[in-house]
Amino acid sequence: MISASLLFSLQATPCGELDLWQEFVAGSGYIPRTSGRNVRRTIPPSSPQERWANHAFVSKPLNEFCKKLFQEFGIKHDGSAHGTVNLESPNLAAFYQRLIELRETVSFASGIIRFELFDDEITPCEWFILSPRNKESDSISGRFTDNECCRTDQMPNNTHAVDVNFVSEDFKRAVEKHGFTGVEFIWLPDTSKRPRRQWFRIIAQKPIGRGIDHDWFDSKTLTGEREQSAKPLYRRGINDFQWKQAKKEAGFGDSTKDGLISLFPPNTNSIDGLNIQSFNRLLRSALPKTDFAFIWQEDFREACFSRRVKEALINEGVLTAEQCDPILIVDAPPPEVLVLDGTHPCPPAYEPVERLETVRAKTMAAWLDFSARRPPQLPPPSLNQALDLLHNSIREGRNKFESPTTIKSIQQATKKLPIKVPEMWCKVLSEANGVVIYGVFGDLGFSAAEYLEGHYEEFTRRGIELDPEFPRHLLHFAFTGSGDFLSLDTSKVTADGDCPVVLMSHETYEPDRTWPSIPEFLAEVFEPEQGED
Predict the structure, then answer these.
(1) 8 Å CB contact between 162 and 136
(2) Is 121 exposed, middle or buried (CB count within 10 Å of its CB: 0-12, 13-18, 19+)?
(3) Is residue 490 a contact partner of residue 473, using CB atoms and an 8 Å limit?
(4) Upstream peptide bond of 352 is cis (omega within 30 degrees of 0)
(5) Please, which residues bridge with residue 41 across strands?
(6) By three-state DSSP, how is residue 401 classified?
(7) Model-level pTM?
(8) Strands 300-306 and 292-297: what pairing?
(9) Nearest partner of 102 among 45, 138, 62, judged by Cα
């Protein structure tokens, strides 16, 4: 199945009626001078231009206005001016008409028309791109150093693929078990103090083909940058582009959908205006005779695999359906779409080729040596071991710690919580009732017990606004430098008061990473980096 949706942001219309601005000024009485200093003022700015220059100060009423608008038409939103609407929604025409009526108040700021391909009975797909979308991949990829090393003790144990090109030894073992072809694995030397499951760079050996452009894309508008490279070696089908790059006749041929497109401002940079995002389309005649292949941009490669690989690895438990991006395989391109395959040789599997050969030889020898003397995997740390690391950090002054508290004080501070604070976390707070850990997750801050109730109410409310099914059993206790937050999963508390720790994305309010226990989480964040005393 192929679906199309519109992801968009609304803004207060520049120099328009701006009733939202009037509402804000009446409610707060504060506006900024053009110099940026805040002063008390009880009347709105004198000109529409001045009002628009201060548009940042209307965000709160704008968000409330948009929230009501989105709820009226059943549009998914995040509580702000950002919304997502399926372009087959029965409410689409009514929403379009309302936007026309409101054009003196709000207008489109930016948007994306996203075409998605689903592997189902209607469109059973033959090839897929390995795509670990969860932010585990974003945070873990930073663990890999320039010389291709990793700390396996900081790798998640609930996934087998991260950051597009890295997979676990269980993934590698499953591929080798089934004898799949067209792929090799380069070991990432383990620099951790507690060696765990090993990780490898996955390198597919054959190109999957150049693919074809989206039928809306005007090939004469190539930017020459990254995925829109005009170099003959790297040129491949374009499926992500700005609306200004579309053919003049591009569109849905539907008055409502094309009308929505007409409401967007022109593209002036890569963010504003309307953009198109779609899936990859490939010609069957260019497919390799292997089980794995790669798709490329100038500076990186992504591993692809056939349907039989997908089914086998899912059955082996080392791959999930969510990690498989479907590719549309076609027998011939649409009319007036260029055939790119066969025009020039495809790029190699890894660049520079000489480096791959050097790394292959070096890591193979290192892997054999490591395998021969591989230390036994250490058991997970106990709470006492994790607290010893916390005490060492306190003594050495590496981080900021608040004074300890008592179990009774914790219980008193959290008595209004609808969920119980796990006993093991109470013991942690009794050692340090609030911590800032420098250099971990961009400076990680643990909250004191008296703040847990407020955090639970605030973040649960925000999560429910995004998804009515957002879990009520997560107790949010810490924040990262990027704004993500950590939660205790109180639905899985053990007899000894332990529970998993979950890293939640501040953008999606979905889990990005999970530690099986509180001690394992503490051991990672308090254990000194390599080279520290």
Answers:
(1) yes
(2) exposed
(3) yes
(4) yes
(5) none
(6) strand
(7) 0.75
(8) antiparallel
(9) 62
Residue-level pLDDT at 264: 92
Tokens at 50, concatenated: 């001045």
Phi, psi of 412, deg, nearest 5: -65, -40
Calculate ∠ Cα 254-256-91, nearest 5°: 125
| DSSP SS3 for 407 | helix
Tokens at 129, concatenated = 């791109």
- Cα–Cα dist 5/88, whole Å: 8
What strands, in cross-sheet order, belong to the sheet with 76-77?
76-77, 82-86, 2-12, 106-117, 273-277, 240-242
The per-residue b/e assignment along 218-233, b for 16 or more CB within 10 angstroms, e otherwise, is bbeebeeeeebbeeee
pLDDT in tens, 140-152: 444 444 567 887 8
Residue 351, SS3?
Answer: coil
Pairwise pLDDT comparison (365 vs 163), residue with the higher score: 365
When pLDDT is averaged across residues 418-435 and rounded to a whole number, the result is 89
Torsion angle of C-alpha atoms 277, 129, 483, 515, degrees rounded to 10: 160
Work out the burial of residue 192: count CB atoms within 10 Å of its CB; fewer than 13 is exposed, 13-18 middle, 19 or more buried: middle
Task: Decide if 481 contacts 524 (C-beta within 8 A).
Answer: no
- Report the candidate in 455, 402, 401, 404 with the shortest Cα–Cα distance to residue 426: 404
Token pair for 364:
């193979």
**Domain residue ranges in the chain:** 2-117, 124-233+279-378, 383-526
Q: How many H helices and E strands in the chain? A: 14, 24
Confirm if 201 and 166 have CB atoms less than 8 A apart: yes
User: What gap in Å lies between CA 520 and CA 35, rounded to an integer?
Assistant: 50
318: left (phi over 0), alpha (psi -120 to 50) or beta: alpha
CA distance 455 to 449: 10
Closest CA to 29 of 18, 19, 43, 17: 43
Q: Write out the CATH class of domain 383-526.
A: alpha beta
For the chain, helix, strand, coil in percent to 5 are: 35, 25, 45
- At 403 the three-state DSSP class reads coil
